[in-house]
């Protein structure tokens, strides 16, 4: 058989391609599936964090900020541990980005505070002199869409088996509670109150106290979750 293949270069090339492709699939797919499993400590987004993620996508923050730290010393020194596949297990869609007009935000929750984000979104140059980022003052006026965020959470729970309402770390407590619509919205508003307590903008505080959640609160919740 091999002698026959040696005399026919085309069929020999096809045979080699099939053999290499099959071997590659056998090696690559199991490892890819293993690396894509959620890493220890990775949890689904809360309803409020999902609402903030929607704001992040709506205003195209991923056009100027990446969420992907490459395994280079220059990046890990600045941004922290390089990204792992399993850390994106619950991201739909991925927000890796392809440009860094601004810094990477993969682990921004480790070194920026609610107060910092509030001032930065209101007046970037007051926090980072020379910044070319525009002010996002409308985030302090617009109200976040918690209903759509809840609908997404419920969908990924039922369709993709995202582990809401489960004990992920074995401590006997539910890690990310979803529940029914009323309880989910109540939990989101409670989380919003905790974030607003660390903010200075009185209009935002008043809105949260009245049961509304400005986009800035949801966005900060999302950014604080990136660790």
UniProtKB/TrEMBL annotation:
Keyword hit for Heme: yes
Gene3D superfamilies: Cytochrome c-like domain
PROSITE patterns the UniProt entry points to: CYTC (PS51007)
Cytochrome c domain: residues covered: 47-227
Alphabetized UniProt keyword annotations: Heme, Iron, Metal-binding
Superkingdom per UniProt: Bacteria
Name of the protein in its database record: Cytochrome-c oxidase, cbb3-type subunit II
Source species of the chain: Malaciobacter canalis
Gene name in the database record: ccoO
């Amino acid at each position: 058989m091999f002698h026959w293949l040696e005399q026919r270069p085309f069929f020999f090339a096809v045979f080699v391609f099939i053999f290499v492709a099959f071997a590659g699939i056998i090696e690559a797919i199991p490892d890819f599936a293993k690396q894509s499993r959620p890493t220890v400590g990775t949890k689904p987004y809360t309803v409020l964090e999902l609402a903030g993620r929607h704001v992040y996508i709506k205003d195209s923050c991923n056009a100027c900020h990446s969420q992907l730290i490459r395994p280079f010393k220059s990046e890990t020194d600045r941004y922290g541990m390089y990204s792992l596949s399993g850390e994106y297990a619950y991201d739909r869609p991925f927000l890796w980005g392809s440009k860094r007009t601004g810094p990477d935000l993969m682990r921004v929750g480790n070194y920026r505070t609610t107060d910092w984000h509030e001032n930065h979104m209101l007046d970037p140059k007051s926090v980072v002199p020379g910044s070319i980022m525009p002010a996002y003052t409308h985030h302090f006026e617009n109200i976040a869409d918690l209903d759509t965020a809840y609908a997404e959470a419920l969908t990924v729970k039922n369709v993709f088996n995202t582990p809401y309402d489960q004990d992920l770390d074995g401590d006997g407590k539910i890690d990310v509670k979803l529940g029914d619509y009323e309880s989910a919205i109540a939990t989101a508003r409670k989380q919003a109150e905790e974030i607003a307590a660390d903010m200075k903008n009185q209009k935002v505080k008043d809105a949260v106290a009245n049961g509304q959640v400005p986009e800035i609160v949801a966005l900060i919740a999302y950014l604080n979750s990136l660790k």
